[in-house]
Predict the 3D structure of the following.
Amino acid sequence: MAANNPETLQIHRIPQSTYIDAVRWLPPLSVFERFILLAVSDSNSDASLLEIRALNRSNPSILTPLSSLQLASRTSSLKVCQTPHKPLIAASSFSGSVRFLFVDNVEVGFDGSEHIVPEKSLHVGPISCIDLGGNELECVSVGEDGRVGLVSVGEGELSVRKVFDSAGLVSYSAVKWASPTEFVTGGLGFSVQWWDLRKPGAAVSQFKGNWDQGASSGIVHSIDIHPSRKHTCLAGGSSGTVFTWDIRWPQQPIVLSGAGQDAASARSLSASEVWEVQYDTFTRSSNHRISSTRVLPVMMCSEDGILAVTEEGEEPIELLVEPCAINCFDIDRQNPSDVICSMEWESVAILSRA
Amino acid sequence: MPGVASNSDDLALIPHSPTNSHTIALHHTVKPPISRLSIAWARGNSLRVAVIRKPQAGESDDEPGGQVVEVKLGVDEADIYEAQWRRIAYGSVTPFAVLQSRKNLNTNAYNADLPAYVIEYSREINSLLGNQKVLPDPVIEDPKTVLQRVDEPTFSKAAWELMEIFFADKQSDGWIPERLVDWLSDYDNLIHGEQPTIYSRLVDFQTELVNLQAVEEDPKYWDVLSAALAVGWLDIVVKLLRLHSSYQHNQIGSRETENGLVETVVVLVSKMPRLRPNLSAGKLGECFDNKPDFVKAWEKWRGQITKLDCSAFWLQCGHQDTREGLKKLLQIMLGNASVLSATTFHWVELFIGHFLYIRPFTVGMESMYNLAQKCMQFKPGSSPHKLMELLNGILGENTEVVLAECSRSFGSWMITHAIELLTAGSTQADILLHEERNNLGGICIEELHRLVYAQVLSSHALTWQIAPIYLASCKKQGMGLLEILLYKQPVGHNQVLLKNIEICRMYELDNVGANAMKIAGVHHWKHGKKGSGVFWLQQAQDEFRLNRIAQQLFDFVGKSVSDESFKQWEGLIELLGSQSKAAGGLDFLHKYRDFKRSLQQVTDIACIDAARKASEALILLMKNPSTPQRFWLSLLYDSVKLLNWKERTLLNVPQTNLLLNKLQELSMARLRPDFIEADLPPQALSSVRLALATNLGRAILEE
């Protein structure tokens, strides 16, 4: 596979002077520059900021600050979505608020209009994850308080409603839209829930693999769903675990890494928390017979400093091995060869694959 | 030192004087009257001040009763400096850890590769302290720019390189003098205090240079030339000499001899033999990596200088300043001690001049030290300077002085990392640093400094997670302090907890990890996050606490569980699992859910399979010792319709007897004072009794 060759992989490490909570690519707004959204927290001033930075195409080791916005609390989850007019940013906080912002297309920066779901109106305590999508630009949010919220981002006002409230009997840690009316959540004990807004009241389907044997259980930290395979959800979590769950075969997860039950088929890339997983649209599947049961290549980053691409039954490709945790990464939708990731030791890395 | 308190100022460790005091404004939003202030240390260099007000009568409860404010002390440190410091701290983790693991590989046998590892380590650390990269040259080179523009060098880097030269770099032991020449050319700008240095003179002269028509007319020109030559900055000397106006086209005819002399000196300067393997680009001289070749070249070069010195051309040179200036340069190259002393400013500059022109073969610390002492006598009055104190300690082979200087001037990061160089440098230092000392509580000096550095790291929210690397390298106290550090982390925050557990996993502190999970479990449980509480207690396999919270959960279930709200419980029940032993009686909920579910499916007579399943679940529940007694009656009451099943009996004689026994047991238990009455209609007991009796009768008949 192409990315295995170090000559075709360019890495630019850019040290920052603040801790990076989250990092995302912004959709392309200019021919000459690329734009990056960073959620940072400054330990000196205890300030949390949202920043738009420009990345020079010819010299990707310089990030020029363009626009920045002070936040009241640290960012727990950050999502970007292209709307017909301008990109929409949603940022959730550890204090339980969600902030919606639009990016100005012309003078790249925050356009001044913002909507806030205040603390305690939707969630009490930290929001663990949000996702943008749904029927007409909706933001689904999950929290440690066991609530599932839905915010419709219209032109003017936000409309907020609670989809489910477990009253703390469970906590959710990840969420992802599957279709305009369906979404998937993940939580403690590697549990994954499938929800359908047309069938309110409870999750439609529950998955909790039989992890009790051998390795101890863990938490799902991140979920992704490929737009062409909405029946399968990809999840990453504790103990280096990356697995997929197909709702058509609800009892059997396909383990891509970690939680070593079937050590032969699933090589463990990492032994600690997998913080984020995304389908890697750049790495082409080595198996040319594309079958719908085969899992597409997956990128993951972990607490023990690994950024890697893994595929069912293949040798994983390590893109980056760092001495500190890689907390977050994002694959550029328009340019899937480019990846940005943020490191625990106050730096970001930009990887370009060829 | 804690516990040392005194009433008199004489005994105070840090004498307090009112002139030293510093006022920091405290910003809070608490309305007066303020009744109490409570002050405590927060992380790092900040204080946590709680401002508490006295509640006034007749006020609404909305008014906050107080506020906690964090006050940063020492805010005058620049932000970027802090970030820069953290970058160095992060960057030094890997080289340090790699070196430790290499040293630990074979502790007994002599590690032949160790010097190579140490120099690799030293280079990596050195590169963190800033690269002396020359800024890109301007497109049109300015001939009058004599000094190259470099990034501002740092004291730490200068100190590190000094230690690298003497302790780590064994390969270049033979050319320490030349390395010192390089060192001074990089850092001469750092050592000036009240007294000028050659570098500062050069900088001054460069600003004047633009306005000078004929440089050789200015006595300063010759001064800086000889000064630069004295410390071996040959490239600068040549560049300056070429500015001599005899090179200009309109003058070359009339000043041919003069120009010839200048150019001959230029050639001699650039051909100076150097006892070193190579030179970096742009530097001048001819390198010799062995002594005999060097001696030969040196003699020849000296011969050429002497020959030029006695040449008849000087008489033909009309320009007096040029003649005298060039002669002075020749004297320096011939090693005239008094000229050298007159042209240099700082003792270290004179020291370097001696190496270059008088004693190029100086080896051994003792001779270097004596030379340094001599130079200091010639150039007294240099104000104390941290780099010079350090150099003094190194030359005097006094490890204690080096340690003290490192610690005093450069802080705990420097000393912790420099000790690796010191121990590699000499056996004596190695013994001194590794000797266990009673006055330090049985630890050695090396460990002491690592512990101090780890403490500094622990005090910052972003660097505490690299402290374990240093603590783990401390044999005696390290693990104990690591445990304390881990226990101090707030576990309510999932990210911190997971980091904590990860560190425990890496250092095999399973017990500490389990305790953190238990604390987190109880924390979440208390804050109403029941699922998280159960999850972490399960992870910690804490049966005791699981049993305790199980009782509370049952109370909650007993009150709230209706068929509707079971949907809420679904997630938690899934989490509890069906057979996990660590659930501490909580597996009851799982079976209860199964029973309720099958009971719900029993809607009419046709659902015989569901009814059979429900009755099996009922027997399982009643047989299970973990089923709490207070649920027995509600379970039986729920299953009255199973007992009264029209078609046939669902429970046989022994099963019915079991249920009857349980009912009997329950009646006995009701007499006890701590019995909790189930929330059921008053006729529940009698209807269950009746149904059971009927069922028993039918079952006997059927058999």
In short: Chain B has a mean pLDDT of 83. The first strand of chain B starts at residue 34 and ends at 41.
